Amino acid sequence: DCRETQLILVDLGQGRNRLGGSALAQVYKQVGDQSPDVDDALLLKGFFDAIQALSRQGLLLAYHDRSDGGLFSTLVEMAFAGNCGLHIELPADASSDAEVLFSEELGAVLQVKKDNVEDVLSVLQQHGVGHCCHLIGAPLIDGERIQFEREGKTILAAQRSELRKLWSETSWRMQSLRDNPQCADEEYQRIGSADPGLSPLLTFDAAEDISVAMINTGARPKVAVLREQGVNGQIEMAAAFDRAGFEAVDVHMSDIIEGRISLPQFHGLVACGGFSYGDVLGAGGGWAKSILFHSRARDEFEQFFHRPDSFSLGVCNGCQMLSHLKELIPGAAAWPRFVRNRSEQFEARLSLVEIVESKSILLQGMAGSRLPIAVAHGEGRAEFTNPDSAGNAQVSMRYIENSGEVAQRYPANPNGSPEGVTGLTTQDGRITIMMPHPERVFRTVQLSWHPPEWGEESPWMRLFRNAREWVG
């Protein structure tokens, strides 16, 4: 709770507050004559050691240096990230408000729990940094007012949303010129709107290992981890399937084309993500053509897809590749193709998706869940041949807003897919394709954020365990 925390300024400039070369000076077309410097290398070393010690002891909640824009930028950026207000009492020893707010001297702001303030200051003191520390205020979770005071006098006050719009304006204008301007506008217009943040919802027990009975048999069915020139997601994918009880086998397309490896020995096939052929042939399109235009490969894949005891997964580049192979895949006629993102840019972010009720064997028991997942693609927009085919497609996953509704706007919908569609399956559920990357987040440590109660394995591990249970 932000209300139970304090902010500590560690001023390694020791009150000098030199403005030379600062962003503030440049705004006024000046350079200045004195710039910040490392005046005491041992002090900097002590600060580094203190931060490492505090981190090991779990005493730090947040940290931000002040070297880019000064204390003002440091604090408002922390407020933007935390979605909260601020009440700040600036140190009284600076010669001017501008110096203390905009000097880019060495230093940082630490957020710590109130109950831990004395312990934190003690650690900083032990490392020779205690004399540089100032308690400067606290976040305000109940509002968005940001207020700076000095010696009891308010020197600056504003609404967080107003400051964030100013802070974001340059990026918005650049984005409007470089990217799709409508996407730029949609993202900019979100500033100041109510946003609960990523809000996961689980409809199953993520800690339950539904494949344990299968693993205990000692049998490890083979899954072909398929890749092509430029694909780079095979290691994470193999690790996820290995943990679920499979024997993951590295299979390059050249192995199949030249007859070194044959697909009948495998129960599963997964086409991984990356940049096949450098994405210059329409991302997964070139990969698919290496199958469609080669008789041996075409026959191998078609026979595998028709086997009732086989399953397949296509992720990102592999999703696009399998969508191009739908003429070989039973029950995939309504699948879309995946084309350039509406934003006209490569999108790499943590997005929120909802698992939709479908026949996908990989997503059984997960319907209704809302989960964060890694997204990294340049051509992920689902484009259906006609509205009728969209209605017949077996959708298994959609992008959603943090509030839960289907995401139609950027960036919650990162590629512009209609109705947020980002995962589909076949009529019998054996073959599933999706644009996001579950293999990049099957462990919680891989997520940039996750609820603290989640264990070592993230809920996405259920997808791989579903496969193991289905194989039997």
Notes on the structure:
This protein is an alpha/beta fold and 472 residues long. It is 30% helix and 22% strand. It has 15 helices and 18 strands. The protein has helices spanning 23-27, 41-56, 70-82, 97-102, 117-126, 160-178, 181-189, 212-215, 234-243, 253-257, 284-292, 295-306, 317-324, 387-392, 461-471; strands spanning 5-11, 62-65, 85-89, 107-113, 133-140, 145-150, 153-159, 222-227, 247-252, 268-271, 311-315, 337-339, 347-355, 370-377, 381-383, 394-399, 421-425, 431-434. The strands form 3 sheets. The chain has a 9-stranded mixed β-sheet. A 7-stranded mixed β-sheet has the order 2-4-1-5-3-6-7. Strand 6 and strand 7 form a beta hairpin. The radius of gyration is 27 Å and the shape is elongated. It starts with a strand and ends with a helix. The mean pLDDT is 93.
Topology (elements, then pairings):
Blueprint (H helix, E strand, L loop, with lengths): L4 E7 L11 H5 L13 H16 L5 E4 L4 H13 L2 E5 L7 H6 L4 E7 L3 H10 L6 E8 L4 E6 L2 E7 H19 L2 H9 L22 H4 L6 E6 L6 H10 L3 E6 H5 L10 E4 L12 H9 L2 H12 L4 E5 L1 H8 L12 E3 L7 E9 L14 E8 L3 E3 L3 H6 L1 E6 L21 E5 L5 E4 L26 H11 L1
Parallel strand pairs: 3-6, 8-9, 8-10, 10-11, 11-18
Antiparallel strand pairs: 1-4, 1-5, 2-4, 3-5, 6-7, 12-15, 13-14, 13-16, 16-17, 17-18
